[in-house]
Every structure is written in structure tokens, then in C-alpha cells.
Fold each of these.
Amino acid sequence: MRRETKLLHYGRPPLPGPANPPVVRASTILHETVESFDDTRSRRETDDSVLSYGRRGTTTAHALMAAIADMEGGDACYLFPTGVAAMASTLSAFLRAGDHLLVVDTAFHATRTLCGSVLSRNGITVDYFPAQATDLSAWAKPETKAVLVESPGSGSFDVMDLPRLTSWAKTRDLVVIADNTYGSAWLYQPLQLGCDVSVVAGTKYLSGHADVMMGASTANHRAAARLREAVIVTGQTLAPDEAYATLRGMRTLNLRLERHEQNALALADWFAQRPEVESVLHPGRRDHPGAALWKRDARGCNGLFSVIFKERFPLRPFLDRIELFAIGTSWGGFESLALPIEPRKNRLDGHRLPAGPAARFHAGLEHVDDLVNDLAKGMAGALSN
Ligand SMILES: *Cc1c(COP(=O)(O)O)cnc(C)c1O
């Protein structure tokens, strides 16, 4: 069956019944007999879909876990209250005091903060490597245990050659963890490219309506047991209402992503022909250094891109003037967003990027003509001042 069809049927309850799995709110699960209780306890040790206690998720979360595991092509998926929580739990599942972690230098800012605070206090050392590297021998140590990748990287959208990098990692028996929020289990499948775990902030496109916080971590056969143990012993779960809202949003994931992609490419084209623009960073544009790799490994692009303007461009007045693009963090909802960014910051080869003022845009689902008109009006206003 095609992925588009499966997306609409994940978690369908028995008929006659509703199309979506209902919100099942429960802590205690009641049994009539001790035998039934004991039976549930033993079956849940090997089956994540057994309803045993609220902390292990109810049927609502179980439907979502099965859906994401299938989309990522993984053995098991676990849910978390935020994307950052998913990343923190996943890293702690595979690392202990004395271990060394290699992280791509374009990683999401909160991932860097996690590495520099809690992980380092717990005795885990971290080094950063450039997104273009595929052989990490120069950065690896005897105590290196894991590699954290993110492709395309946050802000500059550098594309990584995951098949080559993961085959290097296999020679050292390292666990490779991917932040797959850009691809959101639909556009990109890191587990098929050799990674062991794929983390997605479902806060973004999975839920898709700017009203849910959630994270998911999906592991292959090699990594599933370690991830499962960490999730269970630390009591990670996602509330049933949030699981429901995520699965409901996911029914239209493919359609939304198609429109986000079309709109973002059109807006990127518009910026690229403006004399005020130095560079447009979008992995689907032919002038992007990672475009061929992305085309080889992914099924498309999302609504994100960044623009680096010429040095004296009045970025803040421009962003303040555009009306259909609100200023805000996060992305992946239906609405357009803009945010000033510093794409050179924290990057080992940041000097490669122009130094002018920069912004990241998220193209929402509005009609593209309205978005372009809004940008043109904002640009004219900012320049005439
Ligand atoms: C948003 C985001 C996260 C964190 O997700 P939250 O749900 O906001 O905690 C992690 N990685 C990437 C790439 C993100 O964009």
C-alpha cells in the first residue's frame, strides 16, 4: 500500500466505529481477575501496544507510536512531551559518564545547549564536526560512542551524506542518532540511510497546526531495546489528547508538505531575484551546495528557507512590516513565519556564508500570491524609509 493511503488508515478502530482512534484518558487500567492483571504485565514486556498503565501510553498513544514507527521504517517508536525531551532521553539512553559524543555543527540550538549543560555535567564530552564531513576519524576518540546528525541543518540547511557517514560509523560500531524534524518522518528516512535512531519534533509538521508540543524517537532493531529501557525507567510518555491531536494532524501531512514546499520554493525564487539579497539557502534550489545530495536521498523539501541580505539591508524594519509573516520561533504549523537568525554562529566553517543580516522564513499554506505581495510591500516600505 502507498504511504499516502496508509497515513489515512493508521490506528483505525474496529468498525462500526470512528475513523480516528478516540482519546483514551487513563492512569489505572482495571482488571477483573489477578490472572488478567498478571497476563497483561507479562505481555507488555514484549509488546508496546498492550494497555497496562497510563505511563506506558493508552490506545491513543499506541496508535501514534505504530504509525510513526511505520513511517520511519523502524522497529519501535516512543513518545515524549516535547522534541527536546525526545532528544535528551535518546542521548541519555546511549551515553554514560566517560563517553564521547560527536555532534554536527549545524545542530538545533537547544540540542547544543543540552550537550553543553546536562550531558557535560554527567561526564559526557562533546565535539562538533562540519556537516560536509563523512569520515569523522579526525574528531573521533577511543571513547566515542555516538554521532548526532541533523540534515538539512538548522538555519543554513547544509545537507549531510548520511549513507557515507553511517558506513564510516559502522566501522567503529557507533550509534548514529538523527534529528529528523526537517523531514518529519515523511520527506526523509534516516533509518533507511543507515542511522540507528530518528528523532522528530512532532511539534512541527506532524501535528502541523501550531498547537501541540510532542516528540518522537524511532529506533531500528539494533537500538530499540536500549531506547525502550530508557523511556520506561524514566517514565516518558505523551498525554492522550496530544497523541490524538498529532495523529489527527498527520492525516494531511503529505498534502500540507506539498503546499509548504511549493510556497517556499516560490518565495525563495522571489528573494533570489531581489538586488537586496546576497544568498538564498534552500536545499531544493539548484544553487544550494547540497541540492544534488538532498535530491538523491529525500522525497522533497518543507516550507523552510533562509535569506542572507546585503550588508546594509534594513532587516528589522522589513520583518516588522510584513504582515502575513508573524515573528516567532518554531515552524511547521499552517501559518507563515519569519525570524532573524545568525547562520554563521557556532559553525566551524561559518566564514563560507556571507556576513549580511539573515532571516529564516517558514512558508505557510496561505495563497502564494498574497505572500509574495506582502513581501513586496514590506520590502518597498523598508527601503523607502
Ligand atoms: C523544534 C525543534 C526541536 C525541538 O522540538 P520542541 O518540540 O520545540 O522541543 C528539535 N530539533 C529541531 C531541528 C527542531 O526544529
Amino acid sequence: MTLTNASQVPFVDLSSQHQPIQAELMATVQAVLDQGDFILGKALSEFETAFAAACQVEYGIGVACGTDAIALGLQACGIEAGDEVILPANTFVATLIGILRAGAKPILVDCDPTTALIDLAAAEAAITPQTKAIVPVHLYGQMVSPSALRQLAQRHGLIIFEDAAQAHLAEREGDRAGSVGTAAAFSFYPSKNLGALGDGGILVTSTATVAEKARSLRNYGATRKYFHTEAGGTNSRLDTLQAAALQIKLPYLEQWNQARYQAAQYYHQRLQQLEDFGVFPIVNQAGTGHVYHLFVVRLTAVSDRQPLQSALAAQGIQTGIHYPLPCHLQPAFRDLGYSAGEFPQAERLCEEILSLPMYPGLTFAQIDRVVDALQAQLESAKPASRQPLKASP
Ligand SMILES: *Cc1c(COP(=O)(O)O)cnc(C)c1O
């Protein structure tokens, strides 16, 4: 671990990731230029095969973004208008948008406040005869328990469709993210654990019929050129150029995830000293299988995070909030009929969470700076803004 550049702590640093492999990336871009197969080209099918294998599933279908992987993936699994699909209230809105675009009715449920993952008891309570699928979100890089998911799905005959956009190569109970249910969606948004040089996504599945239907849906619903069998089709293909860049980056993913894990371990160790200030990291129940897309803490004794974030930013330390408003309180989705107070754990979590810098290449010295600055800030906070505190649940 070096001390260089420890004074600035960006939230993510993509240039440090790309700099060591720049020559490889440039060469692969040149190869696609030479080949000229920009749409559904050779590098795309090669990457689809490689990524599916990394997820321990049979098929990969590259699409334009993670949101499309959810929408087209659910359609490919047979989800249609009138079907109810369960998802957690505390996710990125893309999960909800994907479900809506598949034509289904989203059913939001609350989360476990210590792990921030979907509360499966709440999910079970929300099941009706119309419920067709559950979309667990492996939030922040930690998988929802595969065994608990499978038991729930089996009891009620539900399709499991994983939103694995934050969980590339994550594992739990011996299962890889993407291999738990009928199909799964990944995003290659640049700052995800595996990111493209732009937008991208993939659907993975081991079910041949689902793969076949998804391939058609992403390509105008065509099964062969100018012969269209799926009315729900659209244009959503992962560019050959993006697939080529992703193919270069894929072999590094495991070591990048390991670097994230080591950074997280050091955060956990250092943050113990901030428990008295009400700082509690989101609990890891997945052990070494957690891929820490984000490192999130709960600030249970801070009533307003904004001054804290500003003070850290003034010292060159960037933080984020993932996400400040749960899905059911977003103005765009008022029509779904939910109201404030409906999902108390998700709502409270949204008010407490703070995402600290996390990326492969983040040094222990930088983590020290973050934790020390956070501590100094909490110590200087006026007692009035701190509520008396009992430890986390
Ligand atoms: C990033 C993300 C998505 C959407 O992926 P895009 O590629 O941005 O469309 C979906 N769900 C979750 C949980 C995400 O983090």
C-alpha cells in the first residue's frame, strides 16, 4: 500500500483501473475496427460465453444496459401484463423500471435494516395468487441467501429473477450470483464491479428457451433476419466494441473483487472505534463471497448527513448515498399507491446510510483518512444534532 495520492479520496477511480490495461484495451478496439462487425459481432458471442461461464450458467445474452436485462429477461421468463413481481423498496429505481417495462405489476416489500437486503418474510406475506416472480437485489455486492430464496420460491411456485447488477462474481452458500434462479440481470455501467466503456448489460440463464426468447427480444423480436416472432421485441444489443472491452477486463475481475474485499475488511476493523458515535457498517452475512460494490455505513446518531458530507468533501473525501429515497416515495411512481410509513425499515435506512469510497486500488492509507476524518467530524458535531443512542438492532 502506497501513501501517494492519499490526500484525495475519490468515491471511485476508473482511470487507475484502466491505466494498467490501456494497451490491451486499445488493441481490442483496433481489432473490432479492423473486423467491422460492430453489431452482434464475434467479440460479443465470445464475451457472452465467457461471462456466462464465470456465473456458472449456460447462456449469456448481451443487451444495451442492466435495465433492459431486467425488462427483457422478465419477458423472456414469461412474465406478462397482470403478473405481480415482488422487489425490495430500497433498490435503485432501475429494478422497478425493468419490472414495469415487462408489463408486470411491481409489489414492493421492506428490507432487513442490518443487511439492507430484501426481507423474505415480508416478501412471503405479500404473495397473492397473481404473484409470478420475485426479484431479489444483491444490494451493495452481497447476495440474498440462495437457500432461503429457493425455499420461498418452491413453496409458492415463483420464478426467481436476480438483479445482480451490483454483484458480479458474488457468492453465498456455494452459489454464484446469477445462478440462483431462472435468470439474472447484470449491468456493465462503468462504475459497476465489471464496467464497460459506456452502457451495457447482460442476461444470464441456464434455460435454453429463456435464452432463445431473450436473443429474439433484444433483436426486434426476430428469430432470423426479417422474420419476427416476438411482438415485445426491441433494439437492445450489447455493442461488439463494449463486449470486446469487457472481455479484456473480465480476467481481472476476481482480483479487483478481492481488493474491494480487503479494503472492506480494513474499513470494518477501523470503524469499530466509531460504534460509540452510532456508526454501524451494513452487516456482511455472505463472508468472503461479498464483492463490495459499495461500502455502506449507517449513521444512526446523525440527523442531517449533508453538513457531514460537505465537510468530508472539503477535505477531498467523496461520499455518496445509495439511495436517498426508496422507490415507493419517488414522485414518478406515486401511481403505484404507496405512501410514507409503509416500509419503515427501508425509509429509515435511506435516511441513515452513507457510502464511503470503495474501488479496487483504494489504499489502507486512504481508508485511514476517511475514518479519521469521519471521526473528527462526528466528535465536533454539536450534541444537539446527536440523539442518545442504543446500539444497532
Ligand atoms: C445499476 C443497476 C441497475 C441498472 O443498470 P443500468 O445498466 O444502469 O441500466 C439495476 N439494478 C441495480 C440494483 C443497479 O445497481
Amino acid sequence: MDDATDPEARPYGRRAFLGLLAGGLTAFAWAGPASRVLSPITSSFSQLGANLLPLGGWRIYTITGVMPDIDAARWRLRVDGLVERPASFSLADLRALPRAEQVSTFHCVTGWTVKGVHWSGVRFADLLAAVQPLSTARALRFVSAEKPYEDSLTLGQALAPDAMLAFGMDRAPLSRPHGAPARVVIPQMYGYKGVKWLERIELVDAQPEGYWEGLGYDQNAWVGHSNGHG
Ligand SMILES: Nc1nc2c(c(=O)[nH]1)N[C@H]1C(S)=C(S)[C@@H](COP(=O)(O)O)O[C@H]1N2
Ligand SMILES: [Mo]
């Protein structure tokens, strides 16, 4: 690997960031799954630990160390920007849209993958039909309740047959660590495109830079073809 493709060589890459965390938290992180489950999530220490702990092959990531705790009953997903009819969707509103389901592999740019993940939710095409994007709209900006995490997809990418807004995972409601009430899923791209704890989708005319893209990762995060890995 050359410097452009080796995540270890990137001074501000995710691996360097996680390395910093791991240095201080290794003992806690590997104390075992029970300690994770029993730790009060209000402890900032356990929240940092959550960046490192495996959960069925998954690593649970936050950039702040604090997982947003969203009341699903009160949560609304705002879809606005370059649309005819800006709207706020409750979970019930989203469940009333045509239901999408798929099984796909999840890839993080740092090298771990989880096979056979069952997702349920809605396709972006069905969500966008409800708000009617203007002809000037070119991209979707996904904003997390975890500030300042965000990312984006072009309209074409969001309309990929296996891209979706997911509110179910492995046949259960999406859990808080995985981004409840809803997150973005696009299996053909690395996981950092999959914004968790989604609160807003803004239709824009040009793709803004996402959180990890601001730290040097590719905007087009195609698995196997982007700069973080592979
Ligand atoms: N809000 C938010 N979304 C996020 C992240 C994050 O730190 N914060 N990390 C991303 C990265 S790099 C990956 S690989 C996946 C990990 O998903 P998981 O935490 O459900 O395993 O979430 C993505 N979405
Ligand atoms: Mo990732």
C-alpha cells in the first residue's frame, strides 16, 4: 500500500483516532460483554468504551462518545431543502410507506465486515416521492442528532436498489447503539456513509463534505475502490 491507501499512514485517519481511544481504554474495553451491558450508559467512560466493544461482529461507533438517546415516539425525520413539499415523518409515517427489506454485507473502512445483516425500512425513492425534489436537487445531506456527524449521497447513489433508510435491523427495531430510530444503509459503500441517529435529510444542489470526508476520506466510498481501505 502507498501512503494514499494505507489508513495507518494517514495522520488524522479513523484508525489513528481509534488508536488514541484504545490506548487509554483497552483494559475496560475487554473487561467482557457483561460489563458493557451493565454499565450505566450515562457514564461517559462507558460511552467511550462503546467505540471499541464488539457486538456480534459489529463495532459500535460514535464520534463524541455519547450515543443520542432519542424518544422514538417524539422523533421526527425532517426532509427539506430543495423539495416541493418539506415534511416531517414520524416512525409511523415511515412505516406507512412501502416497506423495503434486504440482507446485505456491512463494511467499515477500517477493515471489519458483518455478513448477512437483515435491514428493513424504506427506499429513498419512496421517501422522496412524498416530498417531491425540485429539478435543482442533486444530493441528499444526512444530518445526525450526534453533532457534527453528517454525510451525503448523490441522488443517483441514494436511488441504488440496495440503499435505504433503515429502522429495523435483524428483525428487531434498530437499537440505540446502531442508530435508533433510523439510519442510512448503502452496502456498496463503506459504513461511514451510514449516518446513525438520523434527524434530517436536506436536498441540496451540490454534495457537502461529510464528517470523515473532512478528515480525508473519499466522498464516493465504494467498497474496495476508495482511499481508506482495499
Ligand atoms: N452518528 C454517527 N453515525 C455513524 C458513525 C458515527 O460515529 N456517528 N460512524 C460510522 C461508521 S465509520 C461506521 S463503520 C458505522 C458503524 O455502524 P455501527 O456503529 O452500527 O456498527 O456507523 C457510521 N455512522
Ligand atoms: Mo467505519
Amino acid sequence: SRTANPTRDALQTVIASLEGAANAYSFASGLAAEDALLRAVLRPGDRVILGNDAYGGTFRLLDKIYVQWGIDLVPVDLSDPEALRTAVAERAPRLIWVETPTNPLLTVVDIAAVAQAGHAAGAVVVVDNTFATPYLQRPLDWGADAVVHSTTKYFGGHSDVVGGAVAVNDPELAQQVAFQQNAAGAISSPFDAWLTLRGVKTLAVRVERPSENAQRIAERLHDHPRVRRVYYPGLPDHPGHDLAQRQMRRFGGMVSVGVQGGPTAARRFAEGTHIFTLAESLGGVESLIEYPWAMTHASVQGSSLEVPDDLVRLSVGIENADDLISDLLTALDRL
Ligand SMILES: *Cc1c(COP(=O)(O)O)cnc(C)c1O
């Protein structure tokens, strides 16, 4: 079953088909999938450009493990075309790692632009599509070489399974990832693959409803006196709104909120809701709230990826939107 397993094969076929990929490979976690892809592509001396707002664990994997093995890591604001052009021209990356929308600031990155710039320099362009899911966005269609997922999130969808996946088109890259899967062995177990397959059956409705709820929440909190800023690409004043409209079907279920009153107020807000559960992770049917600075993004403290300390991140679930909004407003009123 490390080499091949029928349940894992079924999951891999489904993920490849959703992403429009020739092949997909599933792993024991999102980070295991990332690790397999990085090992497949990188050699000592290579350079990686990473978006300067990214999942903390991805930064930790590169910064604390790969750098030790001779990889050079360069964080760049990939939503800035000039910064992208300069970095690619001057830094000769072997791999460019994109998140869009980013975690936790919901910045939107132009996948086609990064793919074009990266390919001109001979780089492999990877998109972590965990936040959007292939229901909202298909990076390979925009020219990316590989898609990675934490299937722990929207694919599984019920906060009861950990997993990851890599989807690719290029047969050579596929073979290298398949080799890593078998040789290093960080496979998804048959039971985890089965749970994930169950989750995927409802992926579309589990992304639609949170997208609807998140849009309403973002609009309601936008002018709230206790809110410094709402980060949500569905808001017309979001800098990536037009790009997101082209690149995505809808804007997704993730919303971040900068809270007036700084870190103390932000922590109290995150601890003050009842329907939103205070927890890491995301993409499940139930709404979650968290404080990235000390939770999901604690590993980027002190780096150029450090997140604002007044930020609260919401993973909006499928509950009734009015209930969710009143839960948030009550918690904000108590600050
Ligand atoms: C959670 C997450 C990961 C890591 O996935 P695990 O399944 O927890 O290992 C990677 N990227 C993003 C965007 C994530 O949210």
C-alpha cells in the first residue's frame, strides 16, 4: 500500500480530475505533500522564491529544514508585478511558491503572471490551492506546473482527517513525485483516503455556502467601528478584487479582520465568540476563529512574513449567516 492502494488511487484520480491535472498523488498531510514536491524538484544550491504572506508551516519547512540542506529562500511580495519581475530576473529561482488568496492576509496573486515570469527564467511554479480549492480556482489552467493541497481543509471538510496532495501535468515531474511518494513513504492511509473521498462528494456545496456567508460577514464588518480593516477579496475596495473576479469563481470562505485596539482587543475578540470556535485549521463545515500571530503563524514571528498582531482570521462554515453575524457583532460589542 505504500507503492499502490486502490482507495488511494481513487482519491488521486478524483483530485487530478478536479484540478484538470494528468496526475495527482496523495500524502499523509499537506506538509508531507509539500515536502515530496520540494524534494522532487530541488537540489542543494537551488533558490526558492516564496510569497511573503504564506502558511506558517510552509515557511518553517523551507526556512528550518531546506535551508540547512543548501536551499536559498527569498520571500517576495508576488502580488507586486515589479517586485516579481526584479526577483525573478536577479535571483534565478528554481522554484516559485505561490499562495492565492494568501494566508492569512487574503492577498490575491496573478497566477498567469507568475507562471509566465517563472517559466521565462526556467523555474517551476507551484500554487498552494488549499484556500480556494479547485471548485473556485484551477491554477494549472493559468499555467502553474504543480498544485499542492492540504486536503485536511476543504477536501476533507469535516475536521476529521489530515492529508495532502500534489497535482501535476508534466509526466517527468509526475514520475519524480511518484518516486518520492514510494521511496520516502509519506502516503495517505487507505482510511484517510476514503474519508477524504467522502468529503469531496460535497465539496461544491461546502464551498458555495461559506463563500455566500463570508461575503455577507465581510460586508457587515467592513464599516464596523471596532474593525480597522476587513481582508476579503469579495469586497470591491480589496486591491485584488478585479483579479480575483477573473481568476476565481467566487471569493471563498476565509475572512481576516484587523481589530481596533491592537493585540489585546484581537485576542479578546477571538476568545469572545460562541458559534465560531477558537481553533486552528480551516475549511470545515463549522466556523472557526483564530489569532494568527500566536497560533497558525507563530513560526513566522520575527521574519519578513510576520503577520499583524491585531489580526483575527475566520474560517466561515455553513451555518446560518444571520447567526454567524450576530455572534461576531456580540463579541465585538464586548471589546
Ligand atoms: C494547513 C495548510 C497547510 C498544511 O497542511 P497540513 O495538512 O496541516 O499538513 C498548507 N498550506 C495551507 C494554505 C494550509 O492552510
